[in-house]
Fold this sequence. Notes:
By secondary structure, the protein is mostly helical. It is built from six helices and no strands. It starts with a helix and ends with a helix.
Amino acid sequence: MGKTPEGNAQLAQAAKWFRIDVDENPRSVVAWEQLGGVLAMLEDMKGASEAFEKAMSLEPGNLAHYEKLAKTLERQKRYGEAIEVVRRQMKLLEDRRQREQAVEARQYLELLEYQRVKERR
Length: 121
């Protein structure tokens, strides 16, 4: 859908409506999540990360928000911020004793740390 001019126009229209939705319902986690997803599809990673950050602040126990935020930060090469988000996600996973998911998050954290070092060279 996002690869054609028509698809991009539809995504842009969806983003417009989700912006209206978050303006009218600023505490709607679903609206922020949907806005972030559409903005990510439009390659607006800054806007997407802001929307996912808002969703995460409204619903800090939802692990999906951490993952989506970290990925959008990674795509912006904002590795330090992505690392902090994953560390917070890992703490939540460890508190919930979700060890398998915590291991996966640790692996992603290591990848982000590697990318950060590589970027600095």
